Each structure stands twice: as structure tokens, then as C-alpha cells.
Amino acid sequence: MENKSIEYKYCCGCGLCSHFVNGNINEQGYYRPSEKSFLTNFDTSICYCNQVGVKTKNGMWGLLEGIYYGYAIDSQIRKKASSGGILTAIACYLLDERIVDQVVQIATSKHDQMKTEVVWNSTSQDVKQCCGSRYTASASLEGLLDNIDTRRKYAVIGKPCDIRVLRAYLEKSKELNSTILYLLTFFCGGTPSTQANDKLLKRMGLKRNTLQSFIYRGNGWPGKTSGVDIEGNIATVEYEESWGKVLGRDIQDICRFCWEGVGEAADISCGDGWYLEDNQPSFEEREGRNVIFARTNKGNKLLMDMQSAHIVQLENITDTKIIEKIQPGQLMRKGSMFSRILAMKLMGKKIPRYSIIKLLPYARSLSFKLNIRMFAGTVKRILKGKIQ
Predict the structure, then answer these.
(1) Residue 204: which H helix or E strand, with range?
(2) Mean pLDDT calculated for residue range 144-160
(3) Cβ atoms within 10 A of the Cβ of 216, count?
(4) What distances in angstroms separate CA 163 from CA 12, 18, 144, 205, 240, one per listed residue?
(5) N or C: which end of the chain has fewer CB within 10 A?
């Protein structure tokens, strides 16, 4: 269905509305609601494009109860994970200690190595099968409200936008707060399309219908992108190439105008805790390490309990300025949003419901020259038709 509303243009594809209206996967691989009744049957204030301007008073990195470097002590989890394995370790701990009954998360599709599906894991062994990043479309919340049993306890792992939407829904449906106990996420740079993944396969000399396995990252840090076909042929490319030259160049519309890359609505969010060389992130292969944001007291206590139980190794980060160097892309994402949104407004384009005034303080984290460059670049892309 063609619809020009903000909610459709900047849909993040989380799938939460699947409880209220039908939906399907579009040609780019993203979940989209498909009924006209969406705009009347679903509270669209919960939609991500209406959430991006909410709760923006907690500094560049959002609300922080604790900041840590860390990694899973289980060496197999740490090696298999995209970075330090913290989210996998958390999910396993929650199940092993019977704090939750199930962890809702994304796994590789059983039918297509380049697609995803939602799984409801009840054992740590099942969780370990989902370890690692998936740089492709996922609807983490599809079917969530249909399958929740209020007599049970859950943790949900999703993209930052998914978690923001679910947090907003829980604030309006408080009866579920005693059922969905933990919201967990990872740092995100955008969701690549099906076409981007096909380009990557072609670049690697692989075919989707003959894939036996595909790993975007892992088995090292940052780890290589690698695929194996049914004949046992192996193809690999460096992570910097797969993301920087292919996947990161074809993402959802909302991803280009999203500043929630570090998961401000979660209880715990994790990203790459890159080591620095000459004040720049180094992508030299090392043992994985996360940077971890505990955003709620509940999330921080969980990490402390896990450290006491020797499940994770944590190191306090006392100076948030170091995060700007470890995660320069996320700093740029939030800092440049004022200039980019201002350009969109002045050019008469629809934008997510940001408040320009609330964005201005973050623009000051970047130089005036860089803000001008981001503004001009956005205008140029609009004039060339690259931004509709």
C-alpha cells in the first residue's frame, strides 16, 4: 500500500503493529504494515518516527547509570560474538538463573542465510546459536504481543529503534512491565536492505541459494565477513569493506535520520569497545571487547550481579569523553542531526518529528565547518534526487 504519512515514510520495521494490523515484507526486505486501518487502529505516537524527539535531555550518550568496558568470561562466547559477547552472556545468565523464562531475539532464518526470524529462546544453548551480528533487515517485535504469556517473564533483544518503540508501548501498557523485564540492545549504524546484501554476495562471488552459512562478523574482533556455499567454497572480506563499501550505503530512510544508534531506551546497550591508536579506533584483530552502557538501575544491578558470579569481566569508564573517540560514528550521527534536519526542513522535505531546538545543543559537539558541510551535503543530495 502506498501511503505518504510520516509513519510510513519513516517506518523502522520493528513489527510491533503486527498485533493490530496485517503486514508484509517489502522488496527491500523490511517489514511494513499493509492495511489502511494502520493509521486508525494503531497508536502511531508509539511509531519510531514520533519517538526520536522524546527524552533528549540526558546528554550526548543518553541516561547512564554505569559505563564499562567488558567481555564475556566464556571464551567461546567472546570469540564467536561480534565484539565482547556481553549481550549473549546476559541472555544466557537470565535464563540459567531463571530470572526470565524466555529471551526474544533475532536468529538467522532457517530458510535463507541472508534473512532473519524472531525466536523465543528458553535455554542458553539456544541463545548461543544466535550469537553475532546480522547486518540485514529484522522485525524484532513482530508477533511479540500475540505470543506474550503474562504468567511468564521475558527479556527482549532488538535494534535500538525496536527497543525505543517497545519502551514507549510499555509506558502506555504498564501491565506488561512485570512480564517484559529487560530490554537489551546493541549500537547500530543502520539496517541494510536485501539489495545491499545481494551486492555483498556478488562481491564475494557467492549465491544466496547455494549458501550453507554466512557470518557478518565474529570468530575474532572485528572479525571478517565470511560465507560458505554447499560445495564448501569459502569467501571472506574485511568488515571495513563489507560494511563501509556495501552494506552501510543502502539502509532504510529512517536510518539516515536516526540518532538513536546507542540504544538510549534500553536497560543495557552494548557496542564495540575499540582500542585506540593515535586517538582513532583500531580495527586490528584482537580479543573482543564491548563498551557497555547501563541505562537503568535494574540494568546496572544485573551487570554487577554477573560480575560477582564471574560471568562477565567489567572495567569502569570514568571519562565519557573517551566514548567520543571509541565511537566517532555515533558522535557524528547525533551531532550532525541538527544540520541535516534543518536542511530537510528548508527544502520542504518530510522529516521524523524532531525538535530543532532540542537538536541544537548536540550540534555544538561538532565544529561549525563540519555542520555547514553536513547541511550542504544534505541539500546537494536532495537536489540530485537521492533524498526524496
Answers:
(1) helix 194-204
(2) 97
(3) 23
(4) 11, 16, 12, 35, 27
(5) C
3-state secondary structure of 119: strand
Q: 335, 366 in Cβ contact below 8 A?
A: yes
Q: How many helices (H) and strands (E) does the chain have?
A: 16, 15
17-41 pLDDT tens trace: 999 999 999 999 999 998 777 878 8
Comparing CA positions, the residue from 257, 134, 261, 256 lying closest to residue 200 is 134
**Exposed/middle/buried for residue 110 (C-beta within 10 Å: 0-12, 13-18, 19+):** exposed
Over 70: is that where the pLDDT of 1 sits? no
> Rounded to an integer, what distance in angstroms lies between the CA atom of residue 20 and that of residue 41?
6
Residue 169 CA to residue 154 CA, distance in Å, equals: 15
pLDDT at 117: 97
Answer for the pair 253, 26: CB distance below 8 angstroms, yes or no: no
Is it true that the peptide bond before 222 is cis, omega within 30 degrees of 0?
A: yes
Domains recognised in the chain with CATH numbers = 66-192+251-327 (3.40.640), 336-388 (no CATH)
Largest separation between any pair of C-alpha atoms in the chain: 57
Residues shown for the chain:
388
Contact between 179 and 154 under an 8 Å Cβ cutoff? The reply is yes
Q: What distance lies between CA 212 and its chain's CA centroid? A: 25
Report CA Rg, the chain. 20
Residue 233: how many other CB atoms lie within 10 Å? 12
